[in-house]
Amino acid sequence: MLITANLADYQRQVQSDSLKKMVELQLLAPTLQYDLRYATTNNFMHRRMYTPPPHFTFLRTPAARALQLVQQELAENGYGLKIFDAYRPYSVTVSFWELVKDERYVANPAKGSGHNRGLAVDLTIIELSSGRELDMGTGFDNFSDSAHQSFAALPQQVLANRQMLSSTMRKHGFTLLETEWWHYYWPNDRNYEVLDIPFAALKQAGK
Question: How many domains does the chain have?
Fold first, then answer.
């Protein structure tokens, strides 16, 4: 598996296929809310994994455009998305694996992850008027059966909230991850490379 850690290499990849461009999500959907957990200590690692911590995040162009459509559809009913994580440099995945060697919840760095490829996003639904998160039954990064998509021993309103998220995301081309209600990914249909490029460098390249 090749890992792209050089910005010039990434730029050459984008020149050969413009759909590989990493897009800052709020540029397409300004009403998206961010709570980038790995830029804080409020995560299962209990330390900042992104240094310096970014205030922005990315997906590849097709996934970013699809997420824009999800946001637009939810907004018609007064809802929107809050993003916990999207692009994740490969080196962070290595750190995760050192702590949690369980492929149900953490990607094996031998394969790279959808996050490393700019194809995966962790998110929830909020009320646009208040910013309040809908009740999904567990918090983000809950490594238990109750966070699984198929877990049914939950209040009906929680199940309805999860269904709204999954049906809208799948309608616009994303696939769900069974073990995490918050995790969705775009098909790797263009052999998207694993990236280990800092957030600031990607943002500078996108200007």
Answer: 1
